[in-house]
Amino acid sequence: MVQPRVDVIFPCLNEEGSLPWIMSRLPEGYRAIVVDNGSTDRSAEVAREHGAVVVSEARRGFGSAAHTGLLAASAPTVAFCDADSSMDPADLPLVVDPVERGDVDLMLGRRRPTSARSWPLHARAANLALSFLIRRRAHVDIHDLGPMRAGHRERLLALDLQDRRSGYPLEMVLRAKAEGWRIEETDTPYTERVGRSKVTGTLKGTVVAIQDMSRLLREVRRP
User: Fold this and answer.
1) Which among 53, 16, 60 is positioned nearest to 38, based on CA atoms?
2) Bridge partners of residue 150, in order along the sequence
3) CB atoms within 10 A of CB 51
4) Cα 121 to Cα 51, 186, 203, distances in angstroms
């Protein structure tokens, strides 16, 4: 088997409807690692049928699934992407290419909604507030803590991320900043998802995410 250039981690919970399209959109040299986080549908089987590496993580939580995928990866560059078709894997080079060129250490995709229905108002408002706090308290110049991102596998592992819930993406940014990484963001299209988001699709999920991330921000030491 040819070693992939990039491993793409897809945390997955009941996404069988979107996975065929997701798998068909991967660029050449990219390998999908689908982390089944307790799906009750055929997500795992569908992912395998379409060529993905499938690993299971019984502990529920975005961070649990994402980190299990990172541990399973072997390519030098690792990307993360949602598995609900809200983001097109064909756009992954937008975040991967600058990392592979050595221009940046961690590249984040700044979500740009393609329609009014792409991003619920409560989730968009929460993201704006969180991004403001990240810029003010952690001094990281970003405007979105989006799910599409890329970095070098070994360096990501060395960050020793501990959060296993909704705070995982923020912890990655905060620890990378503390290590002096070059962190940038680039625009990525964001469309209406298939099914409902497990994090921002409900008010409860949004509140839990805000709580997890607020805790991490409170731990940031001011300069």
Assistant:
1) 60
2) 79, 107
3) 11
4) 35, 22, 10
Give whole-number Cα distances, 30 to 12, 82, 201, 209, in Å.
Answer: 18, 15, 28, 29
Two tokens at 20? 């065929």
Q: Which residues pair with 56 in a beta bridge?
A: 36
Provide the whole-model pTM.
0.88
Owner of token pair 């660029």 = 27
Single-letter residue type at 49: E
H helices of the chain, where? 19-24, 43-49, 62-72, 93-101, 121-133, 153-158, 168-178, 203-218
**Neighbour tally for 154: CB within 10 Å:** 9
Q: How many residues does the chain have?
A: 223
pLDDT tens digit at each of 223 positions of the chain:
678 999 999 999 999 999 999 999 999 999 999 999 999 999 999 999 999 999 999 999 999 999 999 999 999 999 999 999 999 999 999 999 999 999 999 999 999 998 877 777 777 888 888 899 899 888 999 999 889 999 999 999 999 999 999 899 999 999 999 999 999 999 999 998 664 554 444 556 666 666 777 778 777 655 4
How many degrees, rounded to 5, is the angle at CA 199 between CA 221 and CA 59?
85
Return d(Cα 144, Cα 97) in angstroms, integer.
Answer: 19
Q: Check if the beta carbon of residue 34 is closer than 8 Å to that of residue 97.
A: no
